[in-house]
Amino acid sequence: MSAQDRARWDRRYADRGVPAPEAVGPAAVFEAFAELFPTSGHALDLACGPGTGAVWLARRGLRVVGVDVSEVAIEQARGLAMLSGVGHRCRFDLVDLDDGLPDGPAAHVIYCTRFRDSRLDAPMAARLAPGGLLAVSALGQSGGTAGRFRAAPGELRTAFACLEVLADGEADGLTWLLARRPERADGRD
Ligand SMILES: C[S@@+](CC[C@H](N)C(=O)[O-])C[C@H]1O[C@@H](n2cnc3c(N)ncnc32)[C@H](O)[C@@H]1O
Predict the structure, then answer these.
(1) Does any domain span residue 189?
(2) 140 domain-assigned
(3) pLDDT in the model for residue 184
(4) Range(s) of the domain holding residue 15
(5) CB 3.0–4.6 Å: which of 26, 86, 139, 142 could bond 30 by disulfide?
(6) Is pTM beyond 0.70 here?
């Protein structure tokens, strides 16, 4: 990412300030599925912003690594985790996902909301542990406008066709998908 774009994200987060602890929780589209998320294991939150999703996962009991390109967001996420009493279960790293996924163990949850880079699709699916959950959302074209950063209709289903789709949706300019990696390579649980 260019230094200019990074500075833009930093400014945006600095202007907003640290999120209130009440902001901790799943993205709205995943609220109805919150109980499907595991309560142990490893989670990876990609483009985690100020950590409201990552801290929610840590509060469920997962050990979470959150990554983002904005230093301000990473600092805010660390603060939010401490404030929420789960600092010991969270790590937040400054990572430019243009360089690909950071190394790490197989993940029981990969969480990536309101961020999309199709180059990461295959590495994300490969990083999931058997039975692991993928929760992704991105700007979509339905009800919104076409654009470079907007997922086309059906794009997430196609991108993650190797996973078992539990739920998905496209509305109001947002597209999302919740999917699970089969326990066995042949797709049988
Ligand atoms: C719309 S925000 C979403 C933040 C968070 N996932 C959420 O749902 O609240 C998009 C995030 O992507 C991050 N981002 C954009 N490009 C990135 C990149 N190349 N590498 C890592 N993070 C990036 C931004 O810093 C920002 O925090």
Answers:
(1) no
(2) yes
(3) 75
(4) 3-180
(5) 26
(6) yes
Going by CA atoms, what residue is nearest to atom 27 of ligand 1? 49
Q: Say whether pLDDT at 189 is over 60.
A: no
User: Ligand 1 centre and the CA of 185: distance in Å?
Assistant: 31
Q: Give the number of residues written for the chain.
A: 189
C-alpha distances (whole Å) from 103 to each of 53, 100, 121, 160 are: 21, 9, 15, 20
What tokens does 164 get?
Answer: 């078992």
Tally of domains within the chain? 1
* CATH number of the domain that residue 89 is part of: 3.40.50.150
Beta-bridge partner residues of 107: 128
Q: Is the pLDDT of residue 187 over 60?
A: no
- Residue with more model confidence, 10 or 171: 10
CA of 44 relative to ligand 1 center, distance in Å: 13
Structure tokens at 113: 């909301």
Query: Is 52 inside a domain boundary?
Result: yes
* Contact residues of ligand 1, CB 6 A cut-off: 1, 9, 27, 47-49, 68-70, 73, 95-98, 113-115
- How far apart CA 106 and CA 51 sit, in angstroms, is 21
